[in-house]
Specification:
Its main location: membrane. The protein contains six helices and 15 strands. With 288 residues, the protein is α+β, with helices and mostly antiparallel strands. 17% of the residues are buried.
């Protein structure tokens, strides 16, 4: 019996060590999350993902292979690359080129877009995100509209007509002359003029008037220090002008100048006779 005691003790010790090693291995596997079952499931999911993507893209492959949008668009459609750890730079409108559009039902309408920086061509359907620029919301014959936050971006094909330029605002709008025409004519904003004349005392400080004397007589008043938003600027006067008449009424005294400006309220037309750069000049405006 004593002879068997030592081998039995050794056998029990080996069994205990093996059991302890298995327990430690199971604990380590649980903490690291590397169990064989999980690894097999994860590997199966990753292997199925490219296959699913390739299946979805096969429906659009003929578009490039048959060059439906012209010889320049012929090629092979490849799946989009999986995002890498490094975040790519944001896509700008100038980096995208609209190669063609196909208009049908909402499910069959799509566009072909090239990203210039990476020379990548992709097809997008309504409601899909065009690279990282925004969501495709409308498709027309030669344009596509993308919503990026609160901004609406229009992509155009190379053959699309250019966007019409916005009409430039008149440079004289700030002075009250809303439409200057050749020959010293134009249109004056009646509301702006009336607002300036409501306080005639203040209006007369919108420029400095000095008598212009010729042969001992006052022939008019020389205008200087014209305020851009004042009544004198509103009727087209500039520094250095010599104002002689307003609506054929001679201006040879300060009182007549004030009286002439007061009578402009309610008028539909104004005519100024003056000397500009040494030459007689007339300015005529409609008041509307």
């Amino acid at each position: 019996m004593r002879r068997l005691a030592l081998p039995l003790n050794l056998l029990f010790s080996v069994v205990i060590l093996i059991t302890a090693a298995r327990i430690l291995a199971d604990i380590a596997s649980y903490k690291l999350g590397t169990s064989p079952a999980k690894l097999q499931t994860k590997g199966a999911q990753q292997s199925n993902l490219p296959f699913q993507q390739q299946t979805q893209l096969q429906g659009f492959a003929l578009i490039l292979e048959k060059a439906l949008f012209g010889p320049a668009t012929k090629g092979i459609l490849t799946p989009a690359l999986q995002p890498s750890a490094n975040t790519p730079p944001p896509v700008s409108q100038s980096d995208l080129s609209l190669l063609g559009t196909a208009i049908g039902s909402p499910r069959t309408s799509f566009i072909l877009v090239r990203r210039t920086s990476s020379n990548e061509e992709r097809v997008f359907k309504l409601g899909e995100k065009v690279f990282d620029l925004g969501t495709l919301i409308a498709i027309k014959k030669e344009t596509a509209e993308v919503r990026s936050g609160s901004q609406l971006i229009t992509l155009r094909t190379p053959s699309a007509p250019a966007e019409p330029a916005k009409p430039a605002q008149s440079a004289t709008a700030a002075t009250g002359v809303t439409q200057a025409l050749p020959g010293g004519s134009g249109i004056i904003d009646q509301r702006a003029l009336n607002a300036a004349l409501d306080n005639i005392g203040q209006a007369m400080t919108d420029a400095r008037l000095l008598p212009s004397v010729k042969d001992g007589k006052v022939e008019g008043f020389k205008v200087s220090e014209v305020k851009p938003q004042g009544v004198f600027a509103a009727v087209g006067l500039k520094n250095g002008d010599v104002l002689m008449k307003i609506n054929e009424f001679p201006i040879d005294s300060p009182e007549k100048a004030i009286q002439s400006f007061v009578t402009l309220k309610g008028q539909s037309r104004i005519k100024l006779d003056l000397i500009r750069d040494g030459a007689p000049t007339s300015l005529a405006y409609d008041i509307r």
